[in-house]
Amino acid sequence: MRILIIGGGQAGAHLAEKFCEDDHDVVVIDTQPDALAALDARLDLMTVVGDGADPAILEKADVERADLVVAVADRDDTNILACIFARIRGVERTVARVSSSSYSTSRHIDFKKLGVDLLVNQYDEYARDLYNVLRLPGSIEVADLLDERVMVVGMPIHMDSPLLGHSLKRFVRQEWLQKIRFVAVVRGGAVMTPHGDTSFLVGDAVYFAGEPDAVGDFMAWAWPEHKRFERVVIAGGGELGLQLARMLEHTRMQIVLIEQDDKRAELCSEVLNRTLVIKGDALDRQTLAGIGEAEDMAYVAATGSDEHNIIGCLVAEKFGARFTAAQVGKAEYIGIVNQLRLLDRIVDPHLAMINSILHFVRGKDVQAAAILAQLPGELIEVKLSAKHKWAGKAIKDMKVPEGVIIVTALRGGKVLTPTGDLVLVADDHIVVYCLPETLDKMSSFFTA
Amino acid sequence: MNWKPVFHVIAWLLGVVALLMAVCGLVSWLLGEAATAWRSLLVAGGGTGVVAVALWVATRNRHELSRRDGLGVVAFGWLLAGVAGAVPFVLSGVIASPVAALFESVSGLTTTGATVIPVLEDVPRGLLLWRAITHLLGGMGVLVLVVAILPFAGAGGMQLYRAEMPGPSKDRIEPRMAATAKILWGVYMILTVLLIGLLRLGGMNWFDSVCHSFSTISTGGFSTRTASIAAFHSGYIEAVLTIFMLLGGMNFALHFRVLRGDWLAWWRDSEVRFFIGVFLLCALIGTWVLHGAPGGVGAGWGTPFRDAAFTCASIMTTTGFCTADYGAWPLVLHPMLILLMLMGGCAGSTTGALKVSRIQVMGKALAREIRLFMQPQAVIRVKLGKKFIEDDLLRSILGFILLYVLVMLVGMFALIPFVPDMATAGSAAIACMGNVGPGFGGVGPTGNYAAIPGGGQVILTGLMLAGRLELYTLLAIFMPAFWRK
What we know:
The complex is a heterodimer of chains A (448) and B (485).
Chain A: E1 2-6, H1 10-21, E2 25-30, H2 33-42, E3 46-49, H3 55-60, E4 68-71, H4 76-88, E5 93-98, H5 101-104, H6 111-114, E6 118-121, H7 122-135, E7 141-145, E8 150-156, E9 181-187, E10 190-192, E11 205-210, H8 212-222, E12 231-235, H9 239-248, E13 254-259, H10 262-271, E14 276-279, H11 285-291, E15 297-301, H12 306-318, E16 321-327, H13 331-340, E17 345-347, H14 351-362, E18 367-370, E19 378-383, E20 393-394, E21 404-411, E22 414-416, E23 423-424, E24 429-434, H15 439-447
Parallel strand pairs in A: 1-2, 1-4, 2-3, 4-5, 5-6, 12-13, 12-15, 13-14, 15-16, 16-17
Antiparallel strand pairs in A: 7-8, 8-11, 9-10, 9-11, 18-19, 19-24, 20-23, 21-22, 21-24
Chain B: H1 3-30, H2 35-58, H3 67-91, H4 98-109, H5 125-140, H6 142-149, H7 156-164, H8 177-201, H9 206-217, H10 235-248, H11 252-259, H12 265-268, H13 270-292, H14 302-316, H15 334-343, H16 356-374, E1 383-384, E2 387-388, H17 391-415, H18 422-433, H19 454-468, H20 472-476, H21 480-483
Antiparallel strand pairs in B: 1-2
């Protein structure tokens, strides 16, 4: 496949690397010759210097021969325009990244009709990521399946976990298995699908799925130490901070947003309803002291400066924050911060967005159900046809391939936990988890 | 540098060389030539093949080729290919001295076309074919061929292409290196086959057509006759060769666009316009001077034009075919020919020397300096066609020209103990470094390099390689940083 990437910055470079790994023909357009020279020295791709929304430059990059255009330049208008031009020149699929939520939340403009097949808001992606972690404290990551009817949660196993020392066959409380489905276990960097003899060890990351209430109950039993947060303090009212606050307003948590800039703070308070917006410097002790101490506080640093964010988290920790997360853009910092275990979570501005673009690109045959950045392999949603060999069979009678797990099933709006006795019928929506190595086989298995 | 990935690629390169040597041996045998001829080729081919297979086996776990490794492949690959190519000349007894044989082989691979064989009519045809094939391999670049055949992971392929393709900036035709290399070799072979047909129509026999076609498109200059093209006494052949030498001197990416139907691609390229303009100007000056020369080549305008046009094309494309003894031309024409030797053809062509675009950029940069001297506030950017030349590219072009001249001067002075006069030393250095072939004086169109002693031949061999690989690649291996892991 021939792929044209517009924008050779961090996101563009990362995508170019992935696409080259996947053996695609890659062309990158950027206005900065230096950025392109660095890419050209490292990867087997072609570069064109210029503005990606300039029709002459697009012609120079042979846009009409591209099968896919991914526009991840710094400017939203450049990206959208580039996709529109590409569609006019006959490009089959287009993806544009935007930073402003006014594009991605617009209900009145149909970007698909304009020629933008996928509009990715990078802030949406990681605001959602943070939102999920905040609503399920202690989790590694969370994803929603089947229109939020089912959740997949990744949790670390600690020393005093009640899950320790039992295989699934002799599970302490078998009734959980009627509501909760274990999906995958990540042990020392390797991932496996659990079966009856699997037992959990300290340090494992275990992924399980279920309906939100069942998941909540299960977590309260298995991870009693992780209480819900009472308060979330967000430093920085930029796109990320604002979006996160907006999402959190649906929960019961108390939300405080600190913004330094007058105008921006006013705007935040206009947009938000029950969030307390404070104008001030998040690094200033007075600001934090003014909010007052809280037992179960989470702190999210989302200002534009990496340094500010990291220091802010450290200060918040001193103030008793139980959980700190920072938006960090520089790859060098991410490595160091991870190594020093300074923060509970780092939000890499590009990772979530890149993953969703990659899913869009790769998932032409089967629909990716959700994205889990820390879990290799893929969650795939399939609607069973009457002809499919799984239709009309109980799960224990099917020959489910090694490395594949049926995560959940949906029949007529009702979620069914896939226990061995469940009989799947045509028109059931099922979600399947596949290990990375079985992925190639599975896509043909479901499309055939 | 990492030895394993470097020698893995070199193993493939030697494999190609071995295969083609064996083909020459087979042709020689089929033509019923003396056993020494075909045996020498088959033995050399077999030996190179064994070395290639051994290297391949020893390095067969594939590794990624880094940028520095790419330089290593080019430098060592060319040296080893040169050594392997010299073996048949020694084994068959055509060239007695191994140093002279290496000179001949490297002269072929670098498409210089300077020869140490005084009389070519005595040489077995299998070896003449091998000489022509070294041109064919070296013209578009044997490693570009390897890149086209081998799937390369990472940026290594680009590095090989960059080090082997002449010119200041290298554009890709396709996003992927291997696809670009395939297209370039495809265009190269299309032109070669076309020329074989045209030469055959002009009355050359098949063997001469093939050999001369290989020598022309690669802008090499080896002939099958001692008198070079003059031996054929054909205006048609000279005209066809003039056109194809000029085609070989243009950017092959442009030929590809023309083949795809974009006929104006040549015209739109400022480098080609300049190149053809210089050719026409020099050919006309040459015609005019030769026409008026006392006791000149003859009456009228026809012969002077024919000689001047062919010689200018042959010299400026760094081919080095001869139809006239330009050493005997009026002295006023000599500086013109020397300047043409220094300039060479377009970037992305098979020619040697400095390249037209570098000369254009240098001229514009100098003009800018003069204008800035008069008007210090002026903002002037150097443009080539419609493209701006960024300052660091400009700096690297000027640096290259300076380095080129320096290396050439050093080579020239080092040659003095080995040659009779300054004209020979100077023109031999210029002609070898520019991959032209014939120079003036002792190495002029009627002479050859056989009279130069071994030490001089070694220096010239180095200059040929330095010129073909555009200096940096070869000089890099003398840097300590290159050898670090």
